[in-house]
Please model this.
Amino acid sequence: MPLAGEDRVRLQTLQEWIAPELASLESEIAKLLHSDLAMLEEILTHVSLGRGKLLRPTLVLISARGEERAPADAVFAAACVELIHTATLVHDDFIDEAETRRGLPSVNTQWGAAAALITGDYLYTKVFALLTGRGLHDCMRSLARATHAMSRAEMMQLEWRRRMDLSVDDYMLVIRNKTASLIESSCEMGSFFHPDLRKHHAALARFGRAVGMAFQIVDDIFDYHGDQESLGKPVGGDWREGRITLPFIAAWNAAEEGERQSLRKAVDEHPDPSVLWPRVREFVDEHRGVEASYEAARRFGSEAKEALDLLDGSPQHEILSTAADYVLGRLH
Amino acid sequence: MPLAGEDRVRLQTLQEWIAPELASLESEIAKLLHSDLAMLEEILTHVSLGRGKLLRPTLVLISARGEERAPADAVFAAACVELIHTATLVHDDFIDEAETRRGLPSVNTQWGAAAALITGDYLYTKVFALLTGRGLHDCMRSLARATHAMSRAEMMQLEWRRRMDLSVDDYMLVIRNKTASLIESSCEMGSFFHPDLRKHHAALARFGRAVGMAFQIVDDIFDYHGDQESLGKPVGGDWREGRITLPFIAAWNAAEEGERQSLRKAVDEHPDPSVLWPRVREFVDEHRGVEASYEAARRFGSEAKEALDLLDGSPQHEILSTAADYVLGRLH
Model:
């Protein structure tokens, strides 16, 4: 999604602070997204065209940067995090049968389901083989935990598809595993390379987890209330694909039993969820589901900043606080 | 596949030598194949019904066993190898659109493609999270390399499907990555837990690699010349699914150019490979593709035994030699 003016500035502020590392990161990622196998090389070239904003590796590098430039291993670990994120998106698109990703055809659309599965597996295992080969055991442990959490979240989403009475707790469990886990791992992992912050790795993990929760809730709000044009995709995708998210859950919990029953009846009568999208959106508006979600995101934003208290005095204190503002700021 | 009398005896010989470890292995595997997520628990229960012969974890435990019983970590590592193997089969079945596995519906058939992808990811990452959590870094490195090799092989197979002029070298590259890598890793990994064999881990890896090559060639021979009844599945599956294997390659290389052109023309005219299977089988028979493959398997068997020379004097020397005989013996 293109960023509004203020957010662009915030992300730039973060990324300028680690400008030298970021340049190395880009070439490290480019180097990793290659293969001697012709079809894989084609797929990886395609995937690298649809570049994201590098939020996760940015967080690794921010946590890693001391008075000196972050070491080469930290840049490498940051690139690994981006590759893992990329692998997840390739598998996700296949699971959701998504036709496009960042304006380009998805791997499953262009090369088929089998190629999408194998590309994801290839990227995951390449990262693991390289990390262990370099002896970066702490990073490996952190990423193994994060990727396992993500696979659990995928299974929850599959099992709980279209479950209209999904609880807030179950929703939080999904997004903690799906999104917060890798952002948590990114923030924690960077500190492994920092002489003074290493002892605060748990605080950085807590910060990353809370920021990750806020990040996903903001994404889920966009899907109900975003500007289709600046979002680059139509709203309502979550509802259509059966993902029940916080705006809906909050509205559901605020509605009267009669309204719920009437909505459930309408859903049972219309197997195609697109038909009901206008009504669902109205339901969420009426019961202030977006406002409640916004409140939740803000609470996670505050929690993230509190986790930074231990870092008082380090430049990370201020710069990560800006990162939290950036994540929430996307809401305006 | 049910084993013939002599082979059953050989596998029993191997497994009796590690009987106490094997009992722990079975309960370790059973413990790992559980989840608190309802659908995943269902899938894992189903998967564990279609139990294999535990060849890979048996090799881990044989390499690990010293004068004392192999330590708990070795049993755990052996269980991890079996889980990785299981994950590979679940992803394989999805890639090949296989409907059954070991007489039961495949995960993709019963729960759908998305569930198969997620189950595989879940098992891979569970193993990695547990191994790193326990600090078994050497095992993690070995398994990361093996799983990465396997993903490369999947991509080669996808890219080289139906390539009738596949070279022997490219075939060997595929099976080395697809099959030999995990058997190599199993033999090597066990030695990490053995006080005296640890220094011979490279020899054990070489043994495992050669045994793995022989194992896959024997499998590929069965697909041309097996007994359908004892195989439990119809022959010709590789040809139908576009996997060009050694019996065909050897025949192709032995045939005259005119015969090749005539076969290629027939393939171009019949998009359904099943139609041509009787002719392909005849072609392979006529040009003695099975005999040539058998020779290749035997060479790898000898290579495996040579790798054991360094282990002379240890009980592993004899027992692993029996393992090599078992793999080749399946041919009779």
